[in-house]
Write a structure and sequence with these properties.
By secondary structure, the protein is an alpha/beta fold. It folds into two domains: about 190 residues, Rossmann fold; about 150 residues, Response regulator (Rossmann fold). About 40% of the residues lie in helices and about 20% in strands. It is globular and about 70 Å long. It starts with 13 loop residues before the first strand and ends in a 15-residue tail after the last strand. The chain binds acetamide. The site of acetamide has 8 residues, from loops.
Length: about 375
């Protein structure tokens, strides 16, 4: 039954669920998504809330455990009586939350790039689908480095599916995949030794990484230790942001390449102001990244829809979200009927200060094509 609130009839806060890991091997990136979420909530509350009611986050820490995401999603919806959840980085954690929000008619706002090929009426996808990052990255790499790719990924659904898609894009651009390996999500430096042996033997032109979390640091360090020159054979990634570069050390990350809708400093004046508010709250040394930015702007999109509907009921809120737009730090973004977001496509190279220099970007936001229908 629709839980309609009538304007002015209560001063109770709007309670929303937030599920990002602040401990474990994914905290390096998920904690930044939590920060982006809380910054946006604070901004909305500081401006008077929605209908003079504050947004109150109810937080749980799934500690990088996939099953904990499903468990806490259920607790949020059943025990805490919450319908809207902001959360999840890994696709496996999203898949754990999916049956909960679908069965109980919640709305999961998912601020992370992913493999596409999914539609749920109970998810709003605000990270990039493969047509918004992999396609441009592949063409850029072939034009600048060569045709032979080596795939290294963490062993779970996103890297395997993303590589399946990337393999198709590479082949249709005349390239080839020389090798492919997966390491565990908790991979340690020694787990990358066989990868380094492969790379020395196969001599690919590009190492394409979909390694996530702390293991990212071990991969880049292993490449540096093996004397790999990023000017000749870069690691090109969809998952390495300013946060992982900071964790590995700027010298280790320098010269490597990432495709993302957003890099710190890439979005003009609106972004400069966002970065300065973020640093004021979390510290001068804390960079923003694509995952913070999506976590941040999706809360503002939610707030606009809530302002218009004054209801947390998914069936009332959702139609207001679909078709809505926002001037986000990356530029103007909009959510379409497929529940995905038009996002910018950018390719950046990490510099000595842990920042990405933008080498190429789209002229405007690119429509999401999660099923790759327009990509041959
Ligand atoms: C991811 O697991 N969607 C990065």
């Amino acid at each position: 039954m629709a839980r309609l609130q009538h304007r002015g009839m209560t001063s109770e806060p709007w309670r929303v669920g937030v599920l990002f890991s602040t401990t474990g091997f994914m905290a390096v990136i998920e904690e930044t998504q939590l920060r982006g979420t809380l910054l946006a909530i604070d901004e909305i509350n500081a401006a008077g809330g929605i209908d003079e009611r504050e947004i109150m986050p109810v937080l749980y820490n799934p500690a990088s455990e996939t099953s904990a995401f499903g468990h806490y999603a259920k607790r949020l919806m059943v025990t805490d009586d919450i319908t809207t959840i902001f959360g999840c980085y890994t696709s496996s954690s999203r898949k754990a939350v999916l049956p909960v929000v679908e069965r109980l008619n919640g709305l999961l706002w998912y601020p992370t790039l992913y493999e596409g090929f999914e539609f749920s009426p109970n998810v709003i996808y605000t990270g990039a689908a493969p047509n918004q990052n992999s396609v441009a990255l592949c063409r850029f790499l072939i034009a600048n480095y060569g045709l032979r790719f080596y795939f290294i990924g963490s062993d779970y659904i996103y890297p395997r599916e993303s590589n399946r898609i990337m393999r198709g894009i590479i082949r249709s651009n005349g390239g080839e995949v020389a090798g492919e390996r997966y390491v565990g999500l908790r991979a340690k430096p020694a787990d990358f030794l066989p990868v380094m042996r492969d790379i020395q033997e196969l001599r690919p032109d590009v190492i394409f990484s979909t390694v996530v979390g702390d293991a990212t640091v071990a991969l880049y360090q292993a490449c540096a230790d093996a004397g790999l020159d990023p000017k000749v054979t870069p690691i090109a990634s969809l998952t390495t942001t300013e946060a992982e570069i900071r964790a590995m050390g700027f010298d280790v990350g320098e010269g490597h390449i990432t495709a993302a809708p957003y890099f710190q400093g890439s979005g003009g004046e609106r972004d400069a102001s966002f970065v300065s508010r973020y640093k004021k709250r979390y510290g001068e040394d804390e960079p923003t990244n694509m995952c913070v930015e999506a976590a941040y702007f999706q809360v503002h999109i939610f707030a606009k829809a809530l302002e218009a509907t004054n209801s947390m009921d998914t069936d009332i809120l959702r139609p207001m979200v679909l078709g809505s737009s926002l001037d986000a730090p990356q530029g103007r973004v909009s959510i379409d009927a497929s529940h995905h977001t038009s996002l910018w496509t950018r390719i950046g190279r990490a510099n000595r200060r842990g920042q990405f220099e933008v080498l190429q970007q789209s002229r405007s936001a690119v429509l999401a094509d999660p099923f790759m229908i327009g990509c041959g």
